[in-house]
Amino acid sequence: MDWLRQIPIGQYVDGGEAGGGSWLRRLDPRLKLAWTLAFLVTPILAGPLWRLALVGVLLLITAISGLPWRLWSRSLPLLLALALLVGLLSALIPTGEAASSQPNRPPTELALAPVPAGAPPAQRSGEPWELLRWGPVQLGPVPLGPLVVSRRSAELGLNGATLLITVIHSANLLLVSTPPEELVWALSWSIGPLGRLGVPVERLGFTLLLALRFLPLVQEEFQNLLRSLSTRAVNLRRLGWKASLGLVLALGERLLANVLLRAEQGAEALLARGGTWMAPQDLRLAPQGRPFLDRGASVGLLLLVGLRWKYGAL
């Protein structure tokens, strides 16, 4: 039942135990934050080839990052399987029929022109709308009809699967390889100009640091709830879907209550010890970046943005 602790999702892995020789850990946190934002922003209004290329680049960075494989041996296959399942469901679910509308031009203008005798018959040009038709499918006594994969549903499945991988894995890669203090410093440096407008940058940075510290507590509370279900031998099939839904909602309510209770206890302990927020520049650890490595990452980021501008459009 300790599988959540063995999957480092959103938790920094110390270099003394694993990943000490990783170049990704020595990279400037501002560049890592910029690369993560590029993986999150560039898929917007991008074509399928660009989305697939982003997934390939992200997996390539993971493979050559120098971090040990045991960090990804559990989380990455599960994420790929989840993305594949979401993509298949999105592609197979019907997208609906197109709305009927009156033609703007008379039907006589759209008729095929006659061909001379002996010539092959006239055919419609263009790419077909349906990519795959399988069926009819029958689930027991209930006929489901044919499964049709159209261009719209295939594009929806591809977009959903690739976006799921890029969003989750890029953020996880950033959190695993970056200490929370350096991440808070990078974010505070990015929004530093807003401090002239009266935005409390220091308070926001310290709040983000506390939120990152609470991620393991949320996983621990979820682990305890799963352990309580396993010890009580709860069988969801015997409960039925209504009782199962009620149980899931009750567990979610209990999880939220426990997390809020932990947050309140942490705030009381911080106030009792006379704690206060620290400036973001005081939170940063000793810099470990290399100028050559940082310049290479900057050039790669500019190249990625340039390629998106030229080849990534729909």
How would you characterize this protein structure?
The mean pLDDT is 75. Helix 2 runs antiparallel to helix 5 and helix 4 runs antiparallel to helix 5. The protein is mostly helical and 314 residues long. The chain folds into two domains: 8-15 and 22-95 and 130-138 and 146-179 and 290-314, no CATH class; 203-284, no CATH class. 16% of the residues are buried. A two-stranded antiparallel sheet has the order 1-2. It has helices at residues 3-6, 29-41, 48-64, 75-92, 151-177, 180-190, 201-231, 236-272, 280-283, 291-311; strands at 130-139, 142-150. The two termini are 45 Å apart.
What topology emerges from the helices and strands here?
Elements: H1 3-6, H2 29-41, H3 48-64, H4 75-92, E1 130-139, E2 142-150, H5 151-177, H6 180-190, H7 201-231, H8 236-272, H9 280-283, H10 291-311
Antiparallel strand pairs: 1-2
Strand content: 5-15%
Count of alpha and pi helical runs = 10
Estimated structural class: mainly alpha
Quote the average pLDDT.
75
Task: Give the oligomer, counting copies of the same chain as homo and different chains as hetero.
Answer: single chain
Q: How far do the termini sit from each other?
A: 45 Å
The Rg value, from CA coordinates, equals 26 Å
List low-pLDDT spans.
Answer: none
Strand order of the largest sheet: 1-2
What's the overall geometry? Answer: extended
Helix content: 55-70%
How many E-type strands? Answer: 2
| Order of H and E elements | HHHHEEHHHHHH
